[in-house]
From TrEMBL, chains A, B:
It is a multi-pass membrane protein. This is Magnesium transporter MgtE. The chain crosses the membrane at residues 302-320, 326-355, 376-399, 405-429, 441-464. Belongs to the SLC41A transporter family. The gene is mgtE. Keywords: CBS domain, Cell membrane, Magnesium, Membrane, Metal-binding, Transmembrane, Transmembrane helix, Transport. One of its GO terms (molecular function) is metal ion binding. Acts as a magnesium transporter. It is found in: Cell membrane; Membrane. Pfam families: CBS (PF00571), MgtE (PF01769), MgtE_N (PF03448). CDD domains: CBS_pair_Mg_transporter (cd04606). GO terms for cellular component: plasma membrane. Homodimer.
Amino acid sequence: MADLNDQIAPETELEEEDAYVLDRRGVAAVLYAVEIGDRDRLLALMEPMHSADIADLLEQINPFDRGRLIRLYDQEFDGEILSDLDENIREEVMAALRPETLAEAVRDMESDDVVDLVEDLDAPQQEAILEVLEDADRVAVEQALSYPEFSAGRLMQRETVMAPEHWTVGDAIDYMRDAEELPEQFYHVILVDPRMRPVANVTLGKIMGAPRTVPLKNIAEEMFQIIPVTQDEGDVAYAFNQYHLITAPVVDENERLVGVITIDDAMEVLDEEHEEDILRLAGVGEESSLSDRVVETTRQRLPWLAVNLVTAILASLVIAQFEATIAQYVALAVLMPIVASMGGNAGTQSLTVAVRALATKDLTSANVWRVIRREVLVGLINGVVFALVMGVVGIIWFGSPMLGVVIAVAMVVNLVVAGLAGTGIPVLLEKIGVDPALASGAFVTTVTDVVGFFAFLALAGAILL
Amino acid sequence: MADLNDQIAPETELEEEDAYVLDRRGVAAVLYAVEIGDRDRLLALMEPMHSADIADLLEQINPFDRGRLIRLYDQEFDGEILSDLDENIREEVMAALRPETLAEAVRDMESDDVVDLVEDLDAPQQEAILEVLEDADRVAVEQALSYPEFSAGRLMQRETVMAPEHWTVGDAIDYMRDAEELPEQFYHVILVDPRMRPVANVTLGKIMGAPRTVPLKNIAEEMFQIIPVTQDEGDVAYAFNQYHLITAPVVDENERLVGVITIDDAMEVLDEEHEEDILRLAGVGEESSLSDRVVETTRQRLPWLAVNLVTAILASLVIAQFEATIAQYVALAVLMPIVASMGGNAGTQSLTVAVRALATKDLTSANVWRVIRREVLVGLINGVVFALVMGVVGIIWFGSPMLGVVIAVAMVVNLVVAGLAGTGIPVLLEKIGVDPALASGAFVTTVTDVVGFFAFLALAGAILL
């Protein structure tokens, strides 16, 4: 309904898989309006768009057009667009807005969105934003900022709807109808004991369906998950996904209710955590984004390439030990990358499975040895299969049965090592408190490169010469 | 609160990062109860556990213990455990349950969970499950199964709470209070026109807070997203995340309301889609799971290793063209893997960013050329940096300035190509309808291997000899 494609270019027949993608024509129409400086046309085009789609549009156009669009659109710019924007162009956009527009946008935002907006800003900029807020909102934001970054305290909204545990459905309804202001979003009434500790959750649907005299306790949710305010946001997202939560109360160190987290915020965190894992596994800075500039992107990727260079040089040092062997038998130089490459790939397979299983808490002390044994066995079987294939290739290509044997044995050795390292290294890193997604790749590749080249060349030296 | 660790081993001081992980002692206590066949002890240990944690426990123990535990626990086994179980041990568990227990468990489940349970079963097994359902539920499940796999139709629940668009808050409240049965989970009332087309969404919270005379239309949600019943579940998850939806109505081809999807189901899909992407990028079958057996795991990974073998052999064929060069200058064999490895890594960085950006619909025709230009420039800058480093290494290690020049130039060439291929290949694959997460890796590595070896060895042949 609010799909940008339908709105901007209703004549385009969308294919199913293009759903929700900003289309070229829609973007072109907006840019044309910006080009000719036609404010009315721009507003007409943007009016039906969801703030999240406007944010995407701003991210996808170039900085020059972005600046012009913002200046032309200015007064219409609202807080939701700002919170939907990618963090690394947010500052640029905030700088381009007129101060009054920015103040207005910030005043419109929910307090948890303001937290998200200001937490990465420098102190003076943060100060400037907080100043425009009403007192109550400013206090709420400052309170949230006092909790650690990436904690439940930063994620929660402070406005909750709670009721004493002895209330009936009728009490709750009367209270809500009389309340001056209810939170923008709420789906449960939280029952609390006299010391403000949450004891149960009642969905609004259940309240709607029950007679007025029924005690709230009797229609409370069966399972009830409480989140400590200092809990890591990744664990919060995990709990929502694992226990199918819609909202969960947040408590302080005295187990008193201080706020509530709703599933849409947890879903966003889950999405970000996944994104980080994927980017870390690939050796890309987890903060990276498509709208980063060249310099920033280069700076993020260079360290990982440097680590890889060290790894590659280590492998080269191993090869250098066998220069004499290679000089006598150049076919070794031709075949040696195959063994290393297969090991690297098998290792990446094992490590990805292990890193994911650690992230989803499926790989624990209860099954770690079984998983390691499985990975080693898989490496062994795959090793034997590809050993046979490469043995035959070696014989046909270079006419040497012994060369076939050498590459076959090296292949088996390296794939077994790949299975072992691919599982063992992430598990060890997790144990010593290093993010396995971040560091496993470099270690595993080093192992499979070194073992691959060494096994192949040392065997060749012993058998062929 | 319902955390397994707290429940089973309350004496264990949990570190923050171990939140929600099944702990070794808890698992051991359960297995001990199974070992001595003490049913009461087992029930006492399992009673406080959430069904999702019981499912995790079953996944993490070995098949023999799993069978014994299920037989001892049998009657207590409920439908929620079954839906929380990993698909590939679900059949094993269902086979181990007594038929009456299984029937009871299935009858307890929500209809969308039954759909999830039976959709992968063979026809006779599916039939057996459906038979135990009540008529209304069976029809609901059969109807859902008539929609394509992975579509919104499979994901939605059919029970909705709707109201004519002209109703007031009071009308809605009276209707809900008088309703015989309301859905287990609902957070919105959907307003429909006389032809059953959804026109707006009203949250229960707003209804609770508004006077009885207010028309529902006046307190409806501003943005309102409608999901076609055939839409791919991945796009559904995207829409929930993009537009911050809690529930969304699902419509058939005549735009009539047929069901509703809630965010917890969308979050699960988002989680699965991410998982698939990560596993595909690593060349691991996306269906893979930690509880797969050795044979299954081997079968899933072998094809990707076979693809890699072809890639590696291609690279070797390139090297083979330069056997004479290498024979004259063995240092080339020592250094050549470095160029290929750096290219492979840089290519993986670019392709991961591109694959993710395609998945999140952030890489579109509006910015594809800008992104490609950026990746090439980043490759160029990183290439120059590492060319300088490797040039110096070449000179120091092998005492040959010309060797330094060769490796430096090859490095720049390969990193530029890596940036180009790493972005261009995923974009092309997406265009021709192939999942870029699945196939990009093999193509990009082939390109960087071939270009890396060729550039280095050909240059060396031309300059050094």
